[in-house]
Amino acid sequence: MPGEFITEAPISQVLDGHRLGEPGTVQCMNGECQQKLHDGHQITIYTSQSGGGTEWVITGVYCAGDCEPEPSNHQTDAQTDVIARAWLGVISLAATQVSLLCVTDVKVVG
Predict the structure, then answer these.
(1) Looking at residue 11, what is its pLDDT?
(2) H or E stretch covering 50
(3) What predicted TM-score, i.e. pTM, was given to this entire model?
(4) Which of the residues 3, 44, 47, 83 could staple to 62 if both were Cys, CB 3.0 to 4.6 A apart?
């Protein structure tokens, strides 16, 4: 397609800056914890990509430590799953005066 570019990048680079939602709306997905997460929290994210797809989707956000799922890099023809550690940061949009939590400093752990 005209104007379409395909590049390859490490998953950590693809996820860096990914927006998760407004402050106060993101919480640990561990059913026993469900702590609200804020900028500065270290988190573990679970992400997946459909086989043959180009987009990574964050399917889980957890407190780093006891809440996180077991590391496992799972890959099939249908899907690739990756677990990574990151920090929550903030993106501020001056024009709309909105702040959003985002993933920063991503390191793949499984």
Answers:
(1) 79
(2) strand 42-50
(3) 0.78
(4) 44
